[in-house]
Amino acid sequence: xxxxxxxxxxxxxxxxxxxxxxxxxxxxxxxxxxxxxxxxxxxxxxxxxxxxxxxxxxxxxxxxxxxxxxxxxxxxxxxxxxxxxxxxxxxxxxxxxxxxxxxxxxxxxxxxxxxxxxxxxxxxxxxxxxxxxxxxxxxxxxxxxxxxxxxxxxxxxxxxxxxxxxxxxxxxxxxxxxxxxxxxxxxxxxxxxxxxxxxxxxxxxxxxxxxxxxxxxxxxxxxxxxxxxxxxxxxxxxxxxxxxxxxxxxxxxxxxxxxxxxxxxxxxxxxxxxxxxxxxxxxxxxxxxxxxxxxxxxxxxxxxxxxxxxxxxxxxxxxxxxxxxxxxxxxxxxxxxxxxxxxxxxxxxxxxxxxxxxxxxxxxxxxxxxxxxxxxxxxxxxxxxxxxxxxxxxxxxxxxxxxxxxxxxxxxxx
Length: 414
Description:
Layout: H1 18-34, E1 38-39, E2 45-47, H2 48-55, H3 60-65, E3 68-70, E4 76-79, H4 84-93, E5 102-111, E6 123-132, H5 137-153, E7 161-166, H6 170-185, H7 193-201, H8 212-218, H9 230-246, E8 251-252, E9 264-271, E10 280-286, H10 290-293, E11 301-307, H11 308-314, E12 325-329, H12 332-347, E13 352-354, H13 360-369, E14 374-378, H14 380-385, E15 387-392, E16 398-402, H15 403-412
Parallel strand pairs: 1-5, 7-8, 12-13, 12-14
Antiparallel strand pairs: 2-4, 3-4, 5-6, 6-11, 7-9, 9-10, 10-11, 14-15, 15-16
Helix pairs in contact: 1-5, 1-11, 5-9
Organism: Tistrella mobilis (strain KA081020-065)
Catalytic activity: tRNA(His) + L-histidine + ATP = L-histidyl-tRNA(His) + AMP + diphosphate + H(+)
Binding site for L-histidine: 82-84, 112, 126, 130, 258, 262-263
């Protein structure tokens, strides 16, 4: 039989690695709560139409990366490639749009068929936030600040830079799109195949192309700022002023765009140079047209998502977990008593490791392997005296403690 392996682009998160993931999950929960955001969890698969409507029939995600299948009833289903669409569907189908503003955070697995590389998997995990029903620039400022605070809690804010841009309102976008297409058509022979394909379908995406020839062409393209309406310019200025007041540094990236029509105004990313080519750790923007495009009432929205795998690589390792106490019973009578003692200690909040057999040497070796701080050693002689030997596994100091006092003594150490 062939050796079993996880599917390419997936991996097992074993107990030694899980604290790094939990650290990120806990950060969004803690900081999100301080901002008044409640947790939402949507199914990991939706009707395929949910993502086609939101990501566009011709987007790379829909055409190349989605895991789509027909269930036994013939329904087209898709494993979620991102979180926003499911949240938007949930608030529409749940009739929640009458309760705006809605403030949510989420955490969980996503799925995309793409080439696995450092920090990018086919089953990956995201955290994210969505703020619905707030049309003012204050919404953009708040979600960016929330993201910055999460990165700060994880100890990675200093290794990132906030890049920010505006793609204006619909009037701005339409005017700029016309000018951009006209310019790019004049240089079509220098564009990559991908950019030629996007030229009329999604021309804004040409601006963030990584192709060297495309970048040379784009360097002299018309500037979005020259096509902003007064409202769009004032909106962006208000966002930047708010970030200045909060002391959140940023730099302008005029090539930072979102290609789909429901995006507008602010786009932003926190980027780092510590992960090689995969430099984006948190990305988002304003999407005032999304809910309406999905069939709900026109509702402004702004949010972001961040990859947990990348954040777990960047973040400071979480503080060590509480070290356990190892119970080391010697003999059948002590084994029976150890089960009772372990139960009492655990109910008192003490982390206990109880081996399931072996002599003193084997049990002490296990205690060392699990990182126990102390060992409680007792056999027939100790039981006859109602006592146990309490041994420090750091310095070897050993004292006799009455079994009746053991729970209080160990619980008091925290």
